[in-house]
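lol ok so funny story. i was supposed to be doing the assay writeup but got distracted and ended up predicting the structure for this chain instead. priorities right. anyway since i did it might as well share w the group, maybe its usefull for someone
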Amino acid sequence: MNTIRERVRCIRLKHRLSQEALGKAVGVTKATICNLEKGSAGSSKHLVKIAQALGVRPEWLAEGKGEIYKADEINKLEEKLKGQMEIDEHLDIISKWIENTPNEMLPLLKQLIFFYLESVFNHKKNAHLADSIKHLLLSNS
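and the output, tada:
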């Protein structure tokens, strides 16, 4: 990652943010983020706010030197990764349920899992988990 545009795009994608979402977090338009990532905006006057929104050090974002994350951001990232491992574990468990359920019971199992997803994961923070599990269920139909 030799340029600001590469660093912004890479970290934005790692955080699974759209250009629009990053723009809202920074207080700029999607077009501003798009232009920065294309390299047509040059260096951005919003660099510090972008770094804060992405949880990286502004010096790293600007120059590519030093540590990427602040110490407290590393801790937050580790917690996020732990949560991701839990999500993967949920997917493994549900996948095994489906594999080990007799065909005549699958419709009932799928209804129960959909109900569970709607009641437990029906908020934006875990929407990707619900979508992943629903995709798994539908692909095993």
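Residues 78 and 108 are 37 Å apart (CA to CA). The mean pLDDT is 77.
back to the writeup now i swear
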